[in-house]
């Protein structure tokens, strides 16, 4: 930033009086003007506004006109100051500065000029002169000079300084400045004169300036105080007096200013007082209010001003209406403190006036303060306890009394003294001796603390990284240091059966009486001591922890001791060398490196080295030190000495000494190091001159040797060469290769080899012959060949795509489940067809705080997140965020965008995981924000609740009331297809009109705003699971699917793993889409290049790739089976192969789950009709399940009759389905009880009814009667555990055209029954009223017109009539 610039420059301006003054300023920021006469008004004029009348046109009025002007390049801002009638008093500094940069600094943020307005009648300025015409110059005894401000209007005037005592002033050293006046050093005065003035002559007439009186004043301030120093409290009507006192140097001017509440209308009295003391003057200002009132409460401030400084003092005054006592807790009625704390103050929030009397009691008895020196009552009513002990805990009472006012208050507070854990064995147990290998040992840890500590055992390898070293005293292992060194040991692990290195039993803990105290005792039983490790007993509670370290050393057979030199025993000079001495930990300790000194060897009595004993090697060798480390993998110590740069003088003998743990004797190993000197680089074969043809190849070699091996670099024409396209540097730059040489490759090539001893260079010339036209022809041929190859490749791809065109329904099958009906919008166009309104749905990423990953797939993931409202102070809500993994492709991004748009198109519904917003801006990842369901998917939840399942209905009025409201809300939704269900709490729906997403809040409905349709339930994990819940889940899924169908949407993957359970027992349909790893989930079986959930797919979806709402109905039937089997996997024990698909298409179905009643199993079989149009619709399923849910005609108690009444108590409370079909008695009970309910008589095709008094028993082709597999609960990503078989596309093509006959023996109905059954094949919804005859969907129409049914009947001619 450059400073502003004036058009007049920085020189002074001199203009005659009454002559217009104009100054222009330009700069890089907004400008402002300042002028000497601050009383002169300002007028601003913008550039585009017309000019106002000249100031001279308004008689008697003067003002400064500031108007904008045109800027210049680099200085776009401009302002002009105009003064049309300047007076002599306008003489002074005119400054232009940047308005938004303070303070103005000339040369940085401001530019100024000094203007002299010459007036012969007024040569001296009169600005700042008092009414008496005299000026005052204040000086102190420390002043070195004084300035006489004789300011002039003409810089060329000859000004003389005069004094009342001309003889007392010398003229030497005086300086004149027309802008400041006379500067006079104090030393020129023999005595300080009384007055000074200036004189000049203009036009033969003398003029005098203002006369200035000199006044010598003090300046030092010694002390400033305000009394009382503490805040003042008083009652209404009492007098308030404050004293502001300052000690100053003699003859120092002092000014007091009081600021206080009600200053404008207060009756306060203020009077000053000045008293000279021996060494200073004390100046006092007394402030008093004779009768204080409550309104006088507030801050009182005394400001003291002297010529050189200002001081401010504050105090607070509180005026109480009447005497009072107030008490309250600081942090609740219970206070905790830790034993052995040096000092602790037990205090309450106390206020009272007058100050009350303080009494402390403990357990009803007065605290003996005078006897107990550890306890002291402070003036602040706090009870201080020194050296806190465990016995100091208890109930304390503080009593405050004001006898004069008749007031007394008391408050109880409980003091809890926490005791940090202490391990008993640390004081009494000696360090253990080595433990024999294979022995059985018991380690004990006894701890005491308040609250009772938790004891845990940990272990670490004996030689894990860390400073846990061992010392040895006569073969016995001891700890290094005491317990305060335990913290240095790191890498501790919990002791588990899997991690324990020694065979052991887990620790047992009990409470035992030790030393007359109840202590926690923990014992760790080691059955087979085989490995030396470290064990740690850790006792901890909320106020501390204590540790005991046990060195569990197991004796073993000693092994090896060796030394080595790295990288070799013959290092090169200046190379790094490491000498390593490795000693087995169980045999040796204290390894040390020494270097043998030849001089010392000769001094040791002339004896040769061989005669020296190892134990005295320190006498003739120097110890080297080194870094000691423990190698856990080899259970050995390694002492390493590193020489960063080996010198020739380092050559010699090196000895490693180690001490045997068993005998204590020392052993030594010797290593001789031979140092090779450095050798400068030298060429064995250098590059040679070459001549090559254009498009040919060039190869140059540079064979160099040296010690250490030199680094090679290549240069061409003295420019460095690097590996790039066409140029290759190989074999550590020894070889330079150029493929397809060009003319510009000709030149001088230089090979440079360098090491620590220097550099050598070798050059060779390369000539290129031939023309570049030949190369161009070859390039054209290569490009043409490539274009032809690409053309044929594209042609083959197009032919292959036309031959094997993908069905649009398969696009992104591995990505999305919920899609729009391809009949409405083609699948590959849905992303472009559906809109996205960012103003309605966009959420700022700053409002999201991502948490843990809830699930992830091959392409995406779902993350739990917190979303904040309008402000960060508001409490966040929990949501789920769907996003792509890193490195996602454009197609995966498009798939997630399609999912977002489909969710917007679907709208809000209670039983669908609703969209809350999205983050689509390009400054971050794409995020889709949806509702969070705390109980996870329905499959995992049902499996977890098997142990708490009650196979009967809940007839409580509360439950029945909730059921009725739920059914009524579902019917209202079915009629109106509302975007959200008002009868249930839900996340806020998107606004009907576009609003700013920043204003949208995500808050859960308050109890006042929540409709009473559904009452708040307890935590679902705490309540049992009933049949009512299973039917309720089924009804809600049907209601959600009915809504999706009404929005022209198809799910394609309806399964329990895609149903989430939220609060209030509400289930929501979701689509994990990209966040499900279909490549790892065994529920998705590969068909060709796609992975499909075959066990949930309808036959037309498997074989014809046809997805409709009716194929979703098939999946809904499988979902019902999952729900009523309490989360079991469909088709238990069945291999998912081509035989499975054949039998499924042939009419083979699953057996009924054990907890399913005949009517529920009938709904399943109806959903599994082979013909899609004969399956029930979702509105019909919703009506049927709603009737079942609110049916009240059955008796109370265990009134729900499953197909198999017997239930085993084993296998987590869930019994496996029996292989025999339901008995006639079982089927008659619901039918006889509810004669008007058609579904209670198993309303699936193939059930033929006889007379009213006799029931027909259905028979369905089922898969092999294998028991249900009770799988363990899986993780969130893997929602099921059974696996399928991979089917190739050709296998499906084979079975797609095969006709498979039934796998069971059947009986055929002939005659009128067959003909009647073949004529009537109504839809499922037509069964709701009237009499209906059903043909056998699971049979085959023979050439003779016979129908094969799949049920057993006592009467082969069971008439096809029914009284329903």
CATH architecture of the domain at 424-552: Sandwich
Give the overall form: extended
Q: Count the E strands.
A: 77
Identify the CATH homologous superfamily of the domain at 424-552. Immunoglobulins
Provide the β-strand percentage band: 25-35%
Percent range for helical residues? 10-25%
Number of helices: 17
Quaternary organisation = single chain
Distance between the termini: 95 Å
How large is the radius of gyration?
50 Å
The biggest sheet amounts to: 8 strands, mixed
Sequence stretches where pLDDT stays below 50 over 5 or more residues: 470-485, 604-611, 804-814, 976-1017, 1192-1258, 1265-1364
From the helix content, strand content and strand pairing, which structural class follows? alpha+beta
CATH topology of the domain at 424-552: Immunoglobulin-like
Q: In the CATH hierarchy, what is the class of the domain at 424-552?
A: Mainly Beta
Average pLDDT figure:
76
Furnish the topology, listing elements before pairings.
Elements: E1 5-6, E2 13-16, E3 21-27, E4 31-34, E5 42-45, E6 64-68, E7 77-83, E8 92-98, E9 110-118, E10 134-139, E11 145-148, E12 160-163, E13 175-177, E14 181-185, E15 195-202, E16 205-208, E17 211-216, E18 221-227, E19 232-235, E20 240-248, E21 255-259, E22 269-276, E23 281-289, E24 298-305, E25 310-320, E26 324-328, E27 334-338, E28 343-346, E29 349-353, E30 357-362, E31 365-366, E32 375-377, E33 383-386, E34 394-402, E35 407-423, H1 425-428, E36 441-450, E37 454-461, E38 470-473, E39 476-479, E40 493-494, E41 503-514, E42 517-528, E43 533-541, E44 544-552, E45 561-566, E46 577-584, E47 588-596, H2 598-603, E48 621-623, E49 627-631, E50 636-643, E51 652-660, E52 666-673, E53 679-685, E54 690-693, E55 698-701, E56 703-707, E57 711-716, E58 719-720, E59 727-730, E60 735-738, E61 747-755, E62 758-769, H3 772-803, E63 819-820, H4 830-833, H5 838-841, E64 848-856, E65 860-867, E66 877-884, H6 890-906, E67 915-919, E68 927-931, H7 938-944, E69 949-950, H8 957-976, E70 1025-1026, H9 1027-1046, E71 1049-1050, ...
Helix pairs in contact: 8-9, 8-14, 9-11, 9-14, 11-13, 12-16
């Amino acid at each position: 930033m450059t400073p502003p610039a004036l058009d007049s420059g920085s020189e002074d301006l001199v203009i005659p009086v009454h002559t217009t003054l104009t100054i222009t300023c330009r700069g890089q920021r907004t400008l402002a003007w300042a002028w000497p006469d601050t009383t002169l008004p300002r007028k601003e004029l913008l550039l585009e506004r017309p000019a106002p009348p000249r100031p001279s046109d308004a008689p008697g009025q003067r003002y400064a006109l500031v108007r904008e002007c045109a800027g210049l390049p680099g200085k776009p801002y401009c302002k002009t100051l105009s003064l049309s009638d300047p007076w002599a008093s306008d003489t002074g500094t005119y400054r232009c500065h940047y308005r938004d940069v303070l303070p103005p600094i000339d040369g940085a943020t401001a530019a100024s000029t000094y203007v002299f307005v010459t007036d012969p009648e007024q040569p001296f300025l009169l600005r700042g002169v008092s009414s008496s015409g005299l000026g005052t110059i204040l000086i102190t005894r420390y002043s070195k000079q004084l300035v006489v401000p004789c300011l002039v209007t003409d810089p060329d005037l000859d000004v003389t300084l005069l004094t009342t005592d001309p003889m007392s002033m010398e003229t030497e050293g005086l300086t004149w400045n027309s802008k400041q006046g006379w500067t006079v050093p104090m030393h020129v005065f023999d005595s300080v004169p009384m007055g000074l003035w200036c004189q000049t002559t203009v036009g033969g007439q003398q003029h005098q300036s203002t006369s200035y009186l000199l006044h010598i004043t003090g300046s030092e301030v010694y002390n400033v105080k305000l009394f009382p120093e503490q805040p003042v409290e008083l009652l209404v009507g009492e007098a308030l007096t404050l004293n502001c006192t300052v000690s100053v140097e003699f003859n120092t001017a002092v000014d007091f200013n009081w600021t206080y509440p009600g200053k404008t209308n207060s009756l306060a009295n203020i009077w000053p007082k000045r008293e000279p003391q021996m060494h200073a003057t004390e100046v006092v200002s007394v402030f008093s209010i004779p009768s204080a009132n409550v309104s006088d409460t507030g801050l009182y401030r005394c400001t003291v001003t002297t010529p050189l400084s200002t001081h401010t003092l504050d105090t607070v005054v509180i005026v109480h209406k009447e005497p009072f006592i107030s008490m309250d807790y600081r942090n609740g009625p219970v206070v905790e403190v830790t034993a052995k704390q040096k000092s602790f103050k037990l205090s309450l929030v106390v206020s009272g006036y007058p100050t009350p009397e303080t009494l402390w009691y403990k357990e009803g008895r007065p605290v003996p303060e005078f006897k107990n020196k550890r306890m002291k009552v402070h003036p602040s009513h706090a009870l201080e306890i020194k050296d806190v002990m465990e016995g100091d805990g208890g109930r304390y009472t503080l009593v405050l009394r004001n006898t004069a006012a008749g007031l007394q208050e008391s408050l109880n507070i409980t003091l809890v003294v926490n005791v940090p854990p202490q391990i008993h064995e640390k004081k009494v147990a000696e360090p253990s001796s080595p433990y024999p290998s294979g022995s059985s040992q018991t380690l004990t840890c006894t701890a005491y603390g308040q609250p009772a500590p938790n004891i845990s055992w940990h272990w670490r390898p004996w030689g894990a990284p860390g400073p846990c070293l061992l010392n040895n005293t006569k073969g016995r292992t001891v700890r290094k240091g005491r317990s305060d060194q335990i913290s240095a040991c790191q890498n501790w692990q919990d002791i588990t059966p899997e991690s324990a290195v020694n065979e052991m039993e887990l620790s047992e803990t009990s409470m035992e009486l030790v030393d007359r105290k109840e202590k926690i005792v923990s014992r760790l039983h080691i059955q087979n001591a085989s490995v030396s490790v470290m064990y740690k007993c850790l006792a901890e509670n909320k106020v501390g922890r204590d540790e005991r370290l046990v060195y569990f050393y197991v004796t073993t057979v000693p092994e090896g001791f060796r030394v080595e030199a790295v990288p070799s025993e013959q290092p090169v000079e200046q190379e790094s060398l490491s000498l390593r001495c490795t000693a087995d930990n169980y045999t040796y300790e204290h390894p040390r490196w020494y270097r043998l000194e030849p001089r010392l060897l000769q001094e040791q009595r002339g004896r040769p080295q061989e005669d020296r004993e190892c134990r005295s090697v320190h006498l003739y060798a120097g110890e080297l030190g080194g870094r000691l480390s423990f190698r856990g993998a080899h259970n050995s110590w390694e002492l390493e000495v590193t020489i960063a740069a080996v010198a020739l003088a380092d050559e010699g003998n090196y000895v490693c000494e180690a001490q045997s743990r068993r005998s204590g004797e020392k052993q030594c190993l010797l290593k001789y190091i031979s140092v090779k000197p450095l050798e400068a680089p030298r060429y064995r074969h250098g590059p040679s001159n070459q001549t090559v043809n254009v498009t040919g190849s060039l190869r140059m070699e540079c064979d160099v040797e040296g010690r250490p091996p030199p680094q090679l670099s290549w240069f061409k024409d003295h420019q460095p060469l690097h590996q790039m396209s066409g140029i290759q540097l190989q074999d550590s730059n020894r070889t330079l290769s150029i493929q397809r040489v060009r003319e510009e490759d000709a030149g001088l090539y230089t090979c440079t080899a360098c090491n620590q001893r220097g550099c050598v260079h070798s050059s060779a010339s390369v000539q290129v012959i031939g023309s570049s036209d030949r190369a161009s022809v070859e390039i054209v041929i290569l490009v043409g060949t490539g274009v032809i190859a690409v053309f044929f490749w594209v042609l083959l791809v197009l032919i292959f795509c036309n031959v094997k065109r993908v069905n649009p329904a398969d696009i992104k099958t591995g990505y999305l489940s919920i899609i729009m009906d391809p009949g409405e919008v083609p699948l590959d166009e849905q992303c472009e067809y559906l809109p996205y309104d960012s103003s309605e749905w966009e959420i700022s990423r700053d409002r999201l705080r991502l948490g843990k990953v809830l699930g992830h797939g091959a392409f995406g993931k779902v993350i739990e997140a917190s979303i904040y409202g309008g402000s960060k102070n508001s409490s966040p809500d929990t949501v789920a965020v769907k996003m792509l993994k890193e490195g996602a492709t454009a197609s995966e991004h498009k798939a997630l965008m399609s999912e977002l748009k489909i969710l917007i198109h679907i709208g809000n519904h209670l039983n669908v995981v609703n969209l809350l917003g999205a983050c689509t801006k390009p400054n971050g990842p794409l995020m889709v924000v949806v509702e969070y369901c705390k109980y996870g998917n329905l499959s995992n939840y049902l499996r977890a609740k098997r142990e708490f399942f009650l196979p009967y209905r809940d007839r409580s009025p509360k439950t029945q009331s909730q059921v009725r409201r739920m059914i009524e809300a579902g019917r209202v939704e079915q009629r109106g297809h509302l975007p959200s269900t008002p009868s249930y709490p839900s996340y806020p729906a998107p606004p009907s009109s576009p609003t700013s997403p920043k204003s949208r809040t995500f808050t859960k409905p308050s109890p006042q705003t929540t409709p009473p349709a559904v009452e708040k339930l307890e935590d679902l994990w705490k309540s049992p699971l009933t049949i009512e819940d299973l039917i309720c889940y089924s009804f809600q899924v049907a209601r959600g699917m009915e809504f999706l169908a009404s929005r022209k949407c198809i799910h394609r993957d309806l399964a329990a793993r895609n149903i989430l359970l939220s609060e209030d027992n509400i289930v929501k349909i979701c689509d994990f889409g990209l966040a499900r790893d279909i490549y790892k989930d065994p529920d998705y079986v590969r068909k060709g290049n796609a992975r499909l959930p075959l066990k949930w797919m309808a036959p037309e979806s498997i074989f014809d790739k046809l997805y409709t709402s009716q194929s979703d109905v098939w999946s809904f039937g499988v979902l019902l089976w999952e729900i009523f089997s309490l989360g079991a996997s469909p088709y238990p024990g069945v291999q998912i192969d081509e035989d499975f698909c054949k039998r499924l298409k042939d009419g083979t179905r699953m057996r009924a789950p054990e907890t399913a009643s005949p009517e529920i199993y009938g709904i399943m079989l109806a959903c599994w009709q082979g013909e899609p149009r004969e399956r029930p619709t979702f509105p019909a399923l919703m009506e049927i399940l709603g009737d079942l849910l609110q049916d009240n005609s059955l008796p109370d108690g265990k009134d729900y009759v499953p197909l198999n009444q017997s239930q085993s108590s084993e296998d987590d409370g869930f019994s496996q389905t029996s292989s025999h079909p339901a008995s006639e008695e079982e089927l008659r009970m619901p039918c006889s009880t509810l004669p008007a309910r058609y579904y209670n008589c198993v309303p699936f095709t193939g059930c033929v009814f006889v007379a009213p008094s006799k029931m027909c028993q259905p028979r369905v082709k089922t898969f092999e009667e294998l028991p249900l597999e009770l799988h363990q609960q899986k993780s969130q990503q893997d929602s099921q555990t059974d696996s399928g078989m991979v089917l190739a596309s050709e296998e499906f093509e084979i079975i797609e055209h095969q006709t498979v006959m039934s796998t069971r023996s059947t009986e055929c109905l002939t005659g009128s029954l067959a003909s009647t059954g073949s004529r009537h094949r109504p839809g499922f919804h037509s069964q709701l009223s009237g009499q209906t005859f059903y043909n056998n969907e699971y049979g085959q129409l023979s050439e003779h017109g016979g129908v094969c049914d799949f049920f057993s009947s006592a009467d082969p001619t069971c008439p096809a009539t029914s009284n329903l």
